[in-house]
Amino acid sequence: MAFVTHRFIRTISSTTVRNAAIKHVTIIGGGQMGAGIAQVAAATGHSVVLVDTSEEILKKSAKGIEGSLKRIAKKKFADKPEAGEEFIQKVMKNVTTSTDAASVVSGTDLVLEAIVENLKVKQGLFGSLDKVAPEHTIFASNTSSLPITDIASSTARLDRFGGLHFFNPVPLMKLVEVVQTPMTSQATFDALLDFSKALGKHPVSCKDTPGFIVNRLLVPYMMEAIRLHERGHGSKEDIDVAMKLGAGYPMGPFELLDYVGLDTAKFIIDGWHAMEPENPLFSPSPMLNKLVEEGKFGKKTGEGFYKHK
Ligand SMILES: NC(=O)c1ccc[n+]([C@@H]2O[C@H](COP(=O)([O-])OP(=O)(O)OC[C@H]3O[C@@H](n4cnc5c(N)ncnc54)[C@H](O)[C@@H]3O)[C@@H](O)[C@H]2O)c1
């Protein structure tokens, strides 16, 4: 029955929804990822509304974007500081902010969320926006670990729903995993691919499986590093150095965990463990749980496995 329904929706979508270019973007969540995506979208000429829960957070997001643009301008326009300033102003003009998503989605082509990694919260957000967003608007999630199909199930636009998984830091990382569920229409998938390319990124195509490509390989690796350390088989410093010098990785696993956010890593592994409790690669870690309990989330809180200034 579900299969028939999905096929029906796909047929409808491919005939009624045009593959128009994404120009106006609403990004929900102005944290590490949302602010980075907003910056890149604005810098490539898209009009962006960045949404978060308070003005205070949004001020911090805007300041972060401006700071990042300043660093880019300093390199890009080393000999022409005025041109650099002009570039910053031009990009910042493309970004507005709001604390009320429902009131800003009326003119948007894409709603992309980068909020907390929690299925119920993401479903609640998209469920409410589905009622107010225009028919043509595509919804996408930047989730690292949750099934896109489950998030989309809170809406009636399964054909116009996909995954856009960016990497941290967004302005520097070239990859975007574009995720197609069995219900995502080809027009939607193509629009998301084109949007990723318009941002100057290199998209790869993925099916809706846990962790897509990168995290399915990377998260079990980082958890193995914590387990190695928990068993007392290596200090975190030595494990980090070993992977950098021995495997040529730019960061060690503990440095990477602090960068990603230990809360995010815990959400991911707990979710996968619940899905596949027998899989030893998805076992939770007491050490990770303790750090998260203590509010030590990594770089964003000033301390994780390491202390950060
Ligand atoms: N950190 C990474 O390396 C990384 C990489 C790829 C994907 N992701 C995914 O991106 C998402 C965000 O991760 P992050 O690291 O940017 O988190 P973050 O904690 O830095 O930012 C999340 C932001 O969302 C806001 N928020 C929470 N609920 C909201 C709501 N209902 N409405 C509006 N704003 C809300 C918070 O106030 C916060 O500013 C998660 O789904 C995560 O799995 C993270």
From TrEMBL:
GO MF annotations in UniProt: (3S)-3-hydroxyacyl-CoA dehydrogenase (NAD+) activity; NAD+ binding
E.C. number(s) listed in UniProt: 1.1.1.35
InterPro entries: 3-OHacyl-CoA_DH, 3-OHacyl-CoA_DH_CS, 3-OHacyl-CoA_DH_NAD-bd, 3HC_DH_C, 6-PGluconate_DH-like_C_sf, 6PGD_dom2, Mito_3-hydroxyacyl-CoA_DH, NAD(P)-bd_dom_sf
Coiled-coil residue spans: none
GO cellular component, as recorded: mitochondrial matrix
Site (Important for catalytic activity): 165
Pathway(s) per entry: Lipid metabolism; fatty acid beta-oxidation
Record bears the keyword Lipid metabolism: yes
Enzyme class at the top of the EC tree: oxidoreductase
Keyword list, A-Z: Acetylation, Differentiation, Fatty acid metabolism, Hydroxylation, Lipid metabolism, Mitochondrion, NAD, Oxidoreductase, Spermatogenesis, Transit peptide
Localization in the cell: Mitochondrion matrix
Location, primary (coarse class): mitochondrion
Subunit structure: Homodimer. Interacts with GLUD1; this interaction inhibits the activation of glutamate dehydrogenase 1 (GLUD1).
Protein name per Swiss-Prot or TrEMBL: Hydroxyacyl-coenzyme A dehydrogenase, mitochondrial
Organism encoding this protein: Anguilla anguilla
